[in-house]
Amino acid sequence: MERPIFQPVGTPVRQLDTPALVVDLALVEHNIATVHAFFQHQTAKLRPHVTAHRCPALAHKQLAAEGTVGGISVTTVGEAEVFAEYGFHDIFVASETVTPPTIRRLCALARRATLTVAVDQAANVRDLSAAAGAQGVTLHVVVDVHTRWDGCGVAPGQAALELARAVHAAPHLDFAGLTTYEGAILASDPATLAAETRHCVQQVLTTRALIERAGVPVRVVSVGNTSNYEIAGAMPGVTDVVAGAYVLLDARYAPHRPHLTPAARVLTTVTSRPQPDTAITDAGQKAVSVDRGLPTVNVPDATVSSLSAEHCRLQLAGAAQAAVHLGDTLWLTPYDISTCTNVYDYLHAIRDDHLEAVWRVAARGHYR
After folding, report:
1. What is the pLDDT of residue 367?
2. Which of 149, 192, 239, 343 could form a disulfide linkage to 183, CB 3.0–4.6 angstroms apart?
3. Do both 89 and 198 map to the same domain?
4. How far apart are CA 71 and CA 82, in angstroms?
5. N- to C-terminal Cα distance for the chain?
6. Same domain, 74 and 209
7. Based on the domain organization, do 94 and 198 belong to the same domain?
8. H helices within the chain, ranges in order?
9. Is the sign of the CA dihedral 294, 298, 303, 306 positive or negative?
10. pLDDT score at 12
11. Which residues are CB-neighbours of 142 under 8 A, at least 6 positions away?
C-alpha cells in the first residue's frame, strides 16, 4: 500500500513529493467533453471502460457527462466489486468469468448491482446458470465474438448463434446481446482505420441479424474503443461503445488521437547527472510501468532510454544537456495509462498547476 505524503489543497504541483501520478482536470474535462459530445447525437452510447484508470472519482465524472449508457465496463469481478461499493450499479464485466470462486462472487454481487458478463464457451454458460440459480439471481450475458484481436471470443456466424441459443435457453441467464474486443487499431491512415473497424464491427452486426432471424432478440451490440469510437459508434445497429483510455490518454494513443490530450503524467525529480548526456530521475518501472513501452519526457532533445525498478535514465542531446539540472522536476507521459495507474494507490488531481484533490485508485490490483 502506497503511503503518500499528503499535501494540502492548493499546493503548487511542482512541490508534490515525487514520483507522483498527476491528472490535469482541465485536460480530463476536455477529453470527456470531446468524446461524449459525439455520443450525444448518436443512437449508440458510450460505456466507459474504467479499467483504464480504476478510479471511482474519475468514473463518476465520466457518467456525469451526457452520452453514456449510464453504466461502466470493467475487466474483472474484483474491479466490479470495488466500483459497486462506490455507487455504480450497472456494470459490464467485459471478460469471461470461469473459475467457481469468481462465479460465486459474480452472483453475490448481482444481488446489489445489474451485472452483464461475457461468454464464449457453452460450458461456461452452464456453470453461470447453475451458480445464478443457486444464489437466486439473474445474470445478463453477452456472447463474445472473435473478430480481430488475438484474444477471447467465439467465431462469428453460426457458432455465435448456437452459443446465443444456449444462453437464451439457460435458466437464470438473460441473453442481452453481443460484444467484441477488436483491440486498438492504431492506423495512421484514416481510411485504413475505418476499413478495419467496419470489417470487425460488421461481423458482429451480421451475426446479430442471424440470431434475430432465429427468433432470439438482441438488445446489445457492444463494440469499439478509444481508437475508433466515432466510426464504430456511427454504424447502425451498434448500441454500446466501450472506450476507456480516452479520458486520460497516453503516449501510445496520443499520435493517433490528436483531438485528445494526455491528461495524466508522472512528476519525477532529477536525482543524478552522471554524464553530460545522461540524467537519472526517481521514477522507474515501479512508478511508470514499461509493460508495453517506454514513456516520453517533456524536455526537447531528451528521450527515455531505459527504466530500472526505481530509476529512469534519460538520454540528453543538444540543448537538453544544458537544460536539465539536479533537482529539476520533469514530466513523463506513460506509454500505456492502464498499466501505469495500476501501480498507484492515489491520483493527484490538479487545476491551474495547483492541487485540487487526491483520488483513490480504489480498484488497482484487483486481478480476480
Report:
1. 85
2. 149
3. yes
4. 14
5. 18
6. yes
7. yes
8. 25-39, 56-64, 77-85, 100-109, 122-135, 158-169, 190-213, 229-232, 285-288, 320-323, 337-341
9. negative
10. 96
11. 92, 116, 117, 118, 119, 176, 177, 178, 179, 220, 222
pTM above 0.90, yes or no: yes
**In a shared domain, residues 228 and 264:** no
Q: What is the DSSP letter of 146?
A: P
What are the Cα distances from residue 285, in Å, to 3, 29, 78, 303, 343? Answer: 18, 28, 24, 16, 9
Do the Cβ atoms of 309 and 319 come closer than 8 Å? Answer: no
Residue 335 lies in a domain: yes
Buried b (16+ CB within 10 A) or exposed e, 1-14: eeeeeeeeeebebe
Let me know if residue 244 belongs to a domain.
Answer: no
State the cell numbers at 266: 508522472
**Following CA atoms 261, 264, 269, 272 in sequence, which dihedral angle do they give, to the nearest 10 degrees?**
-70
Residues 132 and 265 in one domain: no
Which CATH number belongs to the domain containing residue 304 in this structure?
2.40.37.20
In a domain, 88, yes or no: yes
Q: How many domains does the chain have?
A: 2
All three cell numbers of 137, joined, read 439471481
- Structural domain including 75 reads 70-238
- Average pLDDT, 10 consecutive residues per value, the chain (368 residues): 73 95 98 98 97 97 97 98 98 97 98 97 98 98 93 96 98 98 92 96 98 98 97 98 97 96 98 97 93 92 96 96 97 96 96 97 91
